[in-house]
Amino acid sequence: MPYNCRVSGEILYRGELLTQERLNKLRGKEIALVPQGVSYLDPLMKVGEQIRKGRKDSASIERCGHLLARFGLGAETEELYPFELSGRNGKAYPDHIGADGRAETGYCG
């Protein structure tokens, strides 16, 4: 932002002020970040690990597979690094982070 720019305002979520404390409680449960490109991703971490947020339990692995399938991506996508995604795959992948079925609302980042 330019030095002379001023930003102000507030965000309401379900009619209530969304404070940092409230956002922290809701994040991942009702609100999730939906990144707008693969540049958001850690280039040194495989896609599956990022979708699962590092979890290795069977439920997380199964949920990851379902999410990939929901977006038309094969199970092999889990083992790819972000730079290996191209075309539609590269554009569809970041949505998975916010689409894990637990959050109700996504916000773009």
Radius of gyration: 16 Å
Q: How many strands appear in the DSSP assignment?
A: 4
* SSE sequence, one letter per element: EEHEHHHE
Q: Which parts are unreliable, with pLDDT below 50 for 5 consecutive residues or more?
A: 91-95
Shape, per Cα inertia axes? extended
Mean pLDDT: 78
Our estimate of the beta-strand percent is: 5-15%
Helix content: 25-40%
Largest sheet: 2 strands, antiparallel
Q: How many helices in DSSP terms?
A: 4
Query: Roughly how many Å apart are the termini?
Result: 16 Å
Structural class: alpha+beta
* Sheet with the most strands: spatial strand order: 1-2
Descriptive notes:
This protein is an alpha+beta fold. Helices cover 34% and strands 11% of the residues. It has four helices and four strands. The chain has helices at residues 20-26, 47-51, 58-70, 87-98; strands spanning 12-13, 16-17, 31-34, 105-108. The strands form two sheets. Strands 1-2 form a two-stranded antiparallel ribbon. The longest helix is centred in the middle third of the chain and has 13 residues, at 58-70. The radius of gyration is 16 Å and the shape is extended. The model is unreliable at 91-95 (pLDDT under 50).
